Fold this protein.
Amino acid sequence: MKFTKHLLFLFFALLSVSIVSCDREDEDDEYPNDQADQTKSSGLVARYSVSGNTLSLIESGPAASGFYNQTRQNEFWNFFTNLIPSDARQVMKELELFADPDDGTAAYVSPINDNDLSLWIMGHNLDFIWDDNNQFVPGESAYTSIHEIAHLLTLDNNQVNVGNSGCSSFHTGEGCSNTDSYINQFYNQFWADIYGELQSIDQQDFGALFAFYNKYQDRFVTEYAATNPGEDIAESFATYVLADAPSEKDIVNRKMSFFDGFPELVNLKARIKGNINFTISLPGIRGERSKRFMARVGSGI
Ligand SMILES: [Zn+2]
């Protein structure tokens, strides 16, 4: 019995030494790796399950070695969780990090299961988070993160019900929005008169979408906002949070006032703004997004 105890003690002592040395090894390795390998590969970086601020690896991809190593993945996640309060991302259950310099998609959200709008995956293209000079881009990364969070807040199970039958309010694509949901009220105020016209346009035809934007550009904060009411509310909310001055466009100011009508959104805006300790140039961000949109118009996709 005593002998067994001794053996057990020895076993745990050895185990703890190996864990400690393992940790130390990782720490020693991290920094030199980070500096040495600046290769940016394309494809999946990693997919994680999300619980609050904690990530658990589901799958690592080919782009996880080199520039987009664990240190940089953590850098992005720390940035994101420091910016967005956890109560605003409760339905975000998975995170996908990928890298693709040729994909116009900076980020996306999608239900993990089409039948359950309480569980969402959010994807971020790290080639938009770091620029060509390998510098972290806080301004546009913040804008993109707020845009995606706005999707979750306006499309989750508290706002939208899965199913198509008998929907008399705005249908988001994922489901039928509640009458008093953010997006249905936004639609009624800002889209009811022009939505039929948009629906006659092929959503892949960026030339036609740009013509639609041009026709109604006084109404929108960006070209991308004109592609559908869901993108409009997300783009408008990102602008609402980050803009310092009123817009020169009256209807845009009315969209900003729309969010002011919901105390919880006023509160969220204040908390996100309180987390920003870097410079943001909204015109600069709009310019980048505009360039990207126009590239899709030019390429005809
Ligand atoms: Zn979007």
